[in-house]
Amino acid sequence: MTELDRRRLLTGTAALAAGTLAVTAIPQAAAGDHVPAGAAARKVLRTPERRFAGLPDYPFEPHYLRVRLGDGSRSTVRVHYVDERPAWPVRPSGETILLLHGNPSWSYLYRHVIPPLVAAGHRCVALDLVGMGKSDKPADRFRYTYQQHMDWLTEAVFERLDLRDVTMVCHDWGGTLGLRLLAEHPHRFRRVVAMNTGLKTGREDLPAEGWKHLATWLQFTQRTNPLTVSDVVAGFTTSTLDPAVLAAYDAPFPDDRYQHGVRRFAVLIPLTADDEATPAFDAAWEVLATLDVPFLCVFGADDHVTGGRHGALSDHIPGAAGQPHAVLAGAHHFLQEDKPHEVAAAIDDFIRRTRV
């Protein structure tokens, strides 16, 4: 299959972006795609709140902020985030942890990781990326580009929340976005924990097994619209998830119109060094390759893409040298579902080891 054939396969189909760990912007539509204009292009969908009623183990108070839609107008989108802080008698540590999810999950993924970290004294902020979770979902699928995700995330984290001295915990696409965020604003971060993620430039070969899963899923969901998001999560955990938990992963998406964010991640995969985002990735790596911010990898031994191999990050970022990187046995791609307490313990231990 040629690179062009692969691109055509990806365009306009569903995503299992978690299996690729890379992105690029696709600025124009493929042949035959209809690009809505005017008011239709600016329409933003909001998942009804009733869809989130009674979610198991997710008692967190919702918080919201607004970021620019990015269409040149004054339109905005609402971003949901969790902001949990220690309360008496827990003594605050003074540490802020930013938790970034990937595709097709949302902050619900961290529901069992947040409580022990708060109990240890840390503030936890978990965003829902635009198009995911309780955040708004632009109805124009071509709004979802890599750069637009970066713009939304940067505005939310630094302009609206004004987070500083952050410990970033990033998983899957949360890492592919977050690592560039780190490279562009290193002074805002104290340390980083990367989980089953990476930052590829388009020059590397796609992992054979990961590509197999992705291509199979793309063709399957292309024929069986709509995409059932919980099938993705269930397929890449070693745990057997309760039906109520699976329903929580489906909750943000009442129908296919709400799934453009999930689906479009697939067409953001850089297949060659000529991809639109490659220069931005190259620039990010120029910084990351010199960065001594403490950097920890916590990967799942059963992850279908990495197989627990984190050398693409830990061997090339100076701050990762000598750190107690962990490969968790019995953990698949969504290791927060499989080993949440081990994940939380690794984060807390890393913070305590690297405090000045």
UniProtKB/TrEMBL annotation:
The keyword Glycosyltransferase does not apply. The keyword Phosphoprotein does not apply. Signal peptide: none annotated. Residues 96-340 form the AB hydrolase-1 domain. It comes from the Bacteria. SUPFAM superfamilies: alpha/beta-Hydrolases (SSF53474). InterPro entries: AB_hydrolase_1 (IPR000073), AB_hydrolase_fold (IPR029058), AB_hydrolase_sf (IPR050266), Epox_hydrolase-like (IPR000639), TAT_signal (IPR006311). Pfam families: Abhydrolase_1 (PF00561). GO terms for molecular function: hydrolase activity. This is Alpha/beta fold hydrolase.
